[in-house]
Design goal:
Blueprint (H helix, E strand, L loop, with lengths): L5 H17 L16 H11 L4 H5 L2 H9 L6 H15 L5 E4 L4 H18 L7 E4 L3
Parallel strand pairs: 1-2
Helix pairs in contact: 2-5, 5-6
Length: 135
């Protein structure tokens, strides 16, 4: 949600890919792709954003904390990021999503959006459940 220098962004993509591969992810056994090259993520985020009300997004604690830490009124990208996360989950019709405690409310938003979409247009998206790691 923060502007990045293009060269830094390209290097971050390469570094992240290298880290994923170094962790043992085998590209022969799973799909490894750059999300920004899949236009359906942004397209679904737009559709879901048209079904999500602004007051719900303004209540998310991550919005309040990030906005305060940036000393600004906040950007549209920051506000709508949880809708993009919901699109990332729902696009693949995920049934279970590993999340940390700090992302539970965002997953609840994805669940609510899926239920709202299904009620309006018919059963289409599974309502994803959280998989919380035990520490």
């Amino acid at each position: 949600t923060m502007p990045k220098e293009p060269a830094v962004l390209r290097q971050n993509i390469l570094d992240t890919t290298a880290a994923v591969l170094a962790c043992g992810i085998d590209p022969k056994k799973c799909f490894l792709f750059r999300q920004s090259l899949v236009p359906e993520h942004a397209e679904l985020a737009w559709i879901l954003g048209c079904l999500t009300n602004v007051p719900r997004l303004l209540r998310l604690p991550q919005w309040k904390m990030k906005r305060a830490s940036q000393n600004t009124e906040g950007t549209v990208g920051l506000l709508t990021y949880p809708v993009l996360q919901a699109a990332d989950i729902l696009l693949y019709k995920s049934t279970h999503v590993p999340v940390g405690e700090d992302q539970v409310l965002h997953l609840e938003l994805a669940q609510d959006i899926a239920q709202h979409f299904n009620k309006k247009y018919g059963e289409f998206f599974p309502v994803p459940k959280a998989i919380l790691s035990e520490l």
